[in-house]
């Protein structure tokens, strides 16, 4: 299975914990880990090489020159570029925030059928966070764990539309 992490250089350390917990709890199930970042340090590459040898997993790094995202909080938008950056034959990927801990198998998530949807994510009613996040809705979804239908994102140009909307509607 393929997993995606997106972060900027400030979150490299957190990513190390997240990816290690992922690999420890999903031994042999992870084929490729895709990383979208603004810059992958030499230290990160050395550590990924060690994980590659220990867990037989491939790490693919996509460094983004985020000129089109310069007015936006950069790292928050990296995941939007997944459909354009990741291999075109990859139709689905599990996105995980770089500051989480995986404490069990994620195989059930990756096998969810989402052909008719752009993504699968956990949604709930907003109670205490609505005012703090200045939300206009009573519902929102956790974007830290998303099963993304990359084929649908490509077909309907979701990344371009979302980035354009964010640029035209600054907070």
Largest sheet entry? 6 strands, mixed
Task: Return the string of H and E elements.
Answer: EHEHEHHEHEHEHH
**Average pLDDT reading:** 86
| SS element count, helices | 8
- Determine the strand fraction and express it as a percent band: 15-25%
Radius of gyration: 16 Å
User: Uncertain spans, ≥5 residues at pLDDT below 50?
Assistant: none
Taken from the alpha-carbon principal axes, the silhouette is globular
Q: Structural class of the secondary elements?
A: alpha/beta
Counting DSSP E segments of at least 2 residues, the number of strands comes to 6
Specify the helix fraction band.
25-40%
Q: What is the terminal separation in angstroms?
A: 36 Å
Strand order of the largest sheet: 3-2-1-4-6-5
Can you characterise this structure?
The chain is an alpha/beta fold. It is 36% helix and 24% strand. It starts with a strand and ends with a helix.
Outline:
This protein has about 170 residues and is an alpha/beta fold.
Which labels suit this protein?
alpha/beta, 24% strand, 8 helices, 171 residues, 6 strands
Lay out the secondary structure.
Elements lengths: L1 E6 L4 H13 L7 E6 L4 H14 L2 E6 L10 H4 L4 H4 L6 E5 L10 H4 L8 E7 L3 H5 L5 E11 H7 L1 H11 L3
Parallel strand pairs: 1-2, 1-4, 2-3
Antiparallel strand pairs: 4-6, 5-6
């Amino acid at each position: 299975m393929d997993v995606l992490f997106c972060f900027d250089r400030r979150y490299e350390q957190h990513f190390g914990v997240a990816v290690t917990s992922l690999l420890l709890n999903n031994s042999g199930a992870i084929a490729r880990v895709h990383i979208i970042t603004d810059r992958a340090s030499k230290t990160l590459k050395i550590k990924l090489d060690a994980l590659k040898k220990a867990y037989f997993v491939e790490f693919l790094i996509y460094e983004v020159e985020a000129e089109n995202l310069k007015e936006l909080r950069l790292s928050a938008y990296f995941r939007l570029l997944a459909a354009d950056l990741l291999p075109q034959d990859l139709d689905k990927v599990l996105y995980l925030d770089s500051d989480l801990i995986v404490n069990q198998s994620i195989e059930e998530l990756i096998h969810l059928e989402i052909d008719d949807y752009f993504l699968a994510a956990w949604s709930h009613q907003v109670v205490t966070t609505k005012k703090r996040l200045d939300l206009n809705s009573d519902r929102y979804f956790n974007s830290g764990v998303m099963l993304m239908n990359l084929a649908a994102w490509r077909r309907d140009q979701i990344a371009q539309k979302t980035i354009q909307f964010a640029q035209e509607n600054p907070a």
